[in-house]
Amino acid sequence: MTPTPNDGLPVPQRYGAILAIALGITVSVLDGAIANVALPTIANDFHASPAASIWVVNAYQLAITISLLSLASLGDIFGYRRIYQTGLLVFSITSLFCALSDSLLTLTVARVLQGFGAAAIMSVNTALIRIIYPQRFLGRGVGINALIVAVSSAAGPTIAAGILSVASWQWLFAINVPIGIVALILGLKFLPANSTRSQGQRFDITSSVMNALTFGLLISAISGFAQGMNHMLILGEVVALLIIGWFFVRRQLSKPFPLLPVDLLRIPIFSLSLGTSLCSFSAQMLAFVSLPFFLQNTLGLNSVDTGLLLTPWPLATMVMAPIAGRLVERFHPGMLGGIGLIVFSFGLFSLSLLPPEPSHLDIIWRMLLCGAGFGLFQSPNNHTIITSAPRNRSGGASGLLGTARLLGQTTGAAMVALMFNLFPSHGTHASLILAGTLAGTGALVSLMRMTQKTSSQKAAESSK
């Protein structure tokens, strides 16, 4: 029996499409974290200061954040497959540019361009998942996608340490090229076209510029405040942010197809799910950025041991995310997400209560708790975000999902800097307590969703 256009791909094509999505999202998410470990080496090679070398990471994240929603809108207009394949091509070419860079400036410029390619991949990957999987298996598909994102983000330092142990930092970027080419070939052969597109939608260039300025100023202000930059400069950024942001939102309210999908934010279960995503990724980044300082500076571990002790977290997420993807087909995602974030919060608070000289087992079981809780939360939450939006607005929903994750990660990393500035000798402890609090807050918001009906429940009622 041939599946309907809205009921997924036939099995051989579906597996090829899944692999194309998995490879693309793995390298794009991984590159957001993998360069951190090599920053000291890159700074030494280019005779740059540590502060200047941080732009190798910031330029990539900033490029993704300011362009994600614009590229998601282009996906709704021109097709998710086309945007995804273009993103893969740009990402692969600019990864080679990164590997061949001969100065910090050329590397930073290459990372900006690489970030635009990654944004194209991230902006529509979840929308493609909605087309690839039959409706009855969509929870599993979103679970697998959530697993890839979570593990790629969390395993960055471990993978980077492994590559750097046998090769130079240039290979952190060069390895993306063959993977990107394979993903591009698979995508050309297996990825589906949009089953439905937004009729009459046109790309809004003015909104795109306002979107870039709004999110760029927001990230700059948050990072500047956390790092103790000039308060007058930060105040100027905040004022500019409020003015541009106000006009940006007003413009979106008047559009039938807004770049910033404010119409989707009016769906209660959608906006609540975005809130939980912000809380959870902020908490995750607070822990992941601060823990290496404790493990290396306080416990005196080397980078390899640190990477190994962080590994139980992504391993637990790897096990739990697909299970959660199946559970969401039977249980309300608000309940699953709430339980997951409670477990996540407990794991974070238990890490903050580590003894002065913990054994490896003391650290490992706490890491497992964090990873399992995060995995149980993320799959149901992503499933809710993507399915609560109309099918022809899947690009906008996917873009907001990626934006929430990036804003959460950026905010979490900035809050680590703030905690270390406020508590110089107990920065990791303060970061973990704040992370546990954010995860607990996210659990409450997630449980509030149980009063809202999911798309599958509404569909079941309408079919009666």
CATH class bucket of the largest domain: Mainly Alpha
| Overall 3D form | globular
Helix/strand order, N-terminal first: HHHHHHHHHHHHHHHHHHHHH
Beta-strand share of residues: under 5%
Number of domains in the coordinates?
3
- For this structure, what is the CATH homologous superfamily of the largest domain? MFS general substrate transporter like domains
The helix count comes to: 21
CATH-defined topology of the largest domain: Growth Hormone, Chain: A
Helix content: over 70%
Round the Cα radius of gyration to an integer and report it.
Answer: 21 Å
CATH architectural category of the largest domain? Up-down Bundle
Mean pLDDT level: 83
| Class of secondary structure makeup | mainly alpha
Low-confidence stretches: 1-5
Number of strands: 0
Distance between the termini: 25 Å
Largest sheet: none
Structure overview:
The chain has about 475 residues and is an all-alpha fold. The protein has three domains: about 10-190, MFS general substrate transporter like domains (Growth Hormone, Chain: A), CATH 1.20.1250; about 205-260, no CATH class; about 260-450, Up-down Bundle (Growth Hormone, Chain: A). It is about 80% helix and about 0% strand. The chain has 21 helices and no strands. It has helices at about 10-30, 40-45, 50-55, 55-80, 80-100, 105-130, 140-155, 155-165, 170-175, 175-190, 205-225, 230-255, 260-265, 270-300, 305-310, 310-325, 335-350, 360-385, 395-420, 425-450, 455-460. Helix 7 (about 140-155) packs antiparallel against helix 16 (about 310-325). The two termini are about 25 Å apart. It is found in: Cell membrane. This is MFS transporter. Keywords: Cell membrane, Membrane, Transmembrane, Transmembrane helix, Transport. One of its GO terms (molecular function) is transmembrane transporter activity. It comes from Rahnella sikkimica.
